[in-house]
Design the sequence.
């Protein structure tokens, strides 16, 4: 089934379908359903070009998944890196390889744009995602803790 999945960079024409997926992604992480917020956020990312979004489409050109990358820097290695912040595949389209293809597209994008590393975080309970990442050679950080603080 992977052969019918196409990975491409998102465009402004994708904003409605992409917002639906982004809203579902946010709900997966226990955020309230808010399609207006999702659409506003996605439209701003696409308009401002401050992230790179890849989408997975099925044979009918329907968006079934996406990943979003943010460029940044790592001071320790003194180089540009990329954060793969979002990866999501619609529940009805899982187990067909879309997530893997999105991850591979992210890797190729980072390599082609001279990022020295890709970083990501995921929920400790998201074992399916962890298995995918590790199958593609990602290594879990056992040295550093991740912290955040709401402002």
Sequence:
């Amino acid at each position: 089934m992977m052969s019918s999945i196409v990975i491409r960079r998102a465009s402004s024409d994708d904003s409605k379908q992409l917002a639906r997926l982004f809203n579902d992604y946010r709900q997966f992480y226990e955020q309230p359903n808010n399609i207006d917020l999702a659409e506003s956020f996605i439209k701003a990312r696409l308009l401002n070009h401050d992230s790179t979004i890849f989408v997975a489409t099925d044979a009918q050109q329907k968006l079934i998944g996406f990943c979003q990358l943010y460029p940044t820097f790592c001071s320790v290695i003194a180089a540009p890196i990329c954060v793969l912040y979002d990866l999501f595949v619609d529940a009805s389209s899982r187990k067909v390889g879309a997530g893997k293809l999105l991850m591979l597209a992210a890797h190729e994008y980072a390599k082609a744009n001279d990022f020295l590393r890709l970083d990501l975080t995921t929920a400790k309970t998201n074992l399916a995602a962890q298995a995918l990442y590790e199958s593609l050679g990602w290594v879990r950080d056992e040295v550093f803790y991740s912290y955040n603080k709401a402002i």
Summary: The chain has four helices and five strands.
